[in-house]
Amino acid sequence: xxxxxxxxxxxxxxxxxxxxxxxxxxxxxxxxxxxxxxxxxxxxxxxxxxxxxxxxxxxxxxxxxxxxxxxxxxxxxxxxxxxxxxxxxxxxxxxxxxxxxxxxxxxxxxxxxxxxxxxxxxxxxxxxxxxxxxxxxxxxxxxxxxxxxxxxxxxxxxxxxxxxxxxxxxxxxxxxxxxxxxxxxxxxxxxxxxxxxxxxxxxxxxxxxxxxxxxxxxxxxxxxxxxxxxxxxxxxxxxxxxxxxxx
Length: 247
Ligand SMILES: *Cc1c(COP(=O)(O)O)cnc(C)c1O
Fold this sequence. Notes:
Blueprint: H1 3-28, E1 36-40, H2 46-54, E2 59-62, H3 65-74, H4 77-82, E3 84-87, H5 96-102, E4 105-109, H6 112-127, E5 135-140, H7 159-167, E6 172-178, H8 187-207, E7 213-215, H9 222-228, E8 232-235, H10 237-240
Parallel strand pairs: 1-2, 1-8, 2-3, 3-4, 4-5, 5-6, 6-7
Helix pairs in contact: 1-2, 1-9, 3-5, 5-6, 8-9
Bound molecules: pyridoxal-5'-phosphate.
């Protein structure tokens, strides 16, 4: 597809998603200013990221380290410095170092060893001039129940300790919680899961008042996330189109 055609397509789809956000905020009595749209650009090229930037997008998310490092590197300096780049995917401890070179934040932190590795990685990246700021960290919570547990994220009972560990890390800034709705649940189940996330966020803020982010809501359930109080949405396919093999 030519660049003008892609631009027109992204303009339309972004407009549709922004209208959905505005409507859901109106319904929930919230201001759209409280909600940050993170466009998940995994599987799509750097040229799409540049178009999204031209269309006013401030935040993008990536979930595959192998793809994200070269893609973020391809962005023009002015585009890169205007964007916040969030890593949202499963992260192996031995890749933590790489992620600290190109991401402003990691939303998928779910275990202590990863916290240690990220803090070390940021220290090295700061030393060698590869980054200038601490890393924004969001703890990923496993909202599954029963057999649905174990698909990524820390268990709710482990959050307090993990949060303290992030807060005690010199180069990490604890920002809040992130979750993906459990699979195989209906709308009521998704609502209940997002409400649990909001409750956990409230509890976290007793001890970490700065941890205000609630990252929830994707293409299919962003309205439910806004109703539950999400501050960050992670929307991919509704804006960029479907990905190969539905990932
Ligand atoms: C891919 C992905 C999204 C976006 O999903 P869509 O359904 O395409 O909006 C959000 N969050 C995470 C963690 C993802 O991996």
